[in-house]
Give the backbone structure.
Amino acid sequence: MESFEIRGRAAHPASGQLRQAIIGVNASGNLEVLVERTLPDTECIVGVTTQIDGFRELWQAVIEDFMARASLGGLRFSINDGGAKPDIVTLRLMQSLRRIETGQ
Amino acid sequence: MSSLLEPQDHDYYEASARDRISGVLDPGSFTEFLGPENRTLSPHLAQFGLTGAFDDGLVIGAGRLFAEPVYIAAQEGRFLGGAFGEVHGAKLVGLLRAAREGAVGSKVRAVLLLLDTGGVRLQEANAGELAISETIHAIIDVRRAGIPVIALIGGRSGAFGGGGIVTACCSRIIVSDHARIGVSGPEVIETNKGIEEFDAKDKGLVWRVDGGRTRSLMGGADRFVLDRIKDFRAVAHESIAGAPSFSLETLSAEQARLEARLTNYGTFRDAPPIWQKAGIEQSQRIAEMTEKEFASLPRPKEATHDAR
């Protein structure tokens, strides 16, 4: 088990009004993402707790890619991971963003 | 969740605990207690190298069911098999106690338990076992206060171990074809008594013995519904009005029902001969017929009783 945080800067605050959203389940090959609008408008943090040790560089690459693709200002993402593959991580991050922005 | 379907139209089996709650309750009426932002994670799992869940695998709160105020709890069957741990159990017990105490003031009409559990989490077994007994105690107290507790079973983990006992303590039990209810699960029986006693890999056997069909035929469940959230929703609402009160008469009736069942069927080793002896129509075809066909069968006399 391993925990770490990846921090980023954002040019714009994320859209929408919801204070928080949650998506996914911490199960084998899956993960849950809790997203909260609690940071200053230009900051973004993704906190990861994962069952599988030794993949921090891969997490870093996936999360930096996500941060580059979207406006995440003000958002803190917290992940409980059960060993999800990178494509599932990206999918859940995008779903959590859509949910806090639109409620969908 | 697909935007093409409303939450109520979703498959109950495939839905998450949160999606089940949104679909069962009136749209937008759910208020969560101790939501994930409170981070009530298990304090025990990290010692075993396991990551937790922000809600410890149980979502609880208040909402409305066809405008009636209810409390609701849903286990996430995919997180550690929906199993009971310390925090998970404390949340459920707290919800039940709040329902009972609100019986005077805010008048909760029912408590819905969307159980989906393999029983007690082995990593926190003592706390989990205590949580089960406290839950049973709390359910009885809620029922004695005149508030029905309705169990909805149709998730991938079924309702096993202490979860099976909790189910049996509820006022009404609603199942789908996917449901399984039992105390010792198939793999536990096989491990302890051998494969000759029970072959846990034989899915047909597992469902004939523990499944929703046989439970509803033999009175172990009160209603059989199709596997859609809206069917669970409608039948949960219908179940509130006629739910039996909890009294000495209820218990005596339940005892008599179980004694009769043991006398009549205690020597059988599989379900079809029991269905046949019980005089159930088309008993030879029960296991093969479609979900819809089964749901439309007339309810056998033994399954309708005022016990429980």
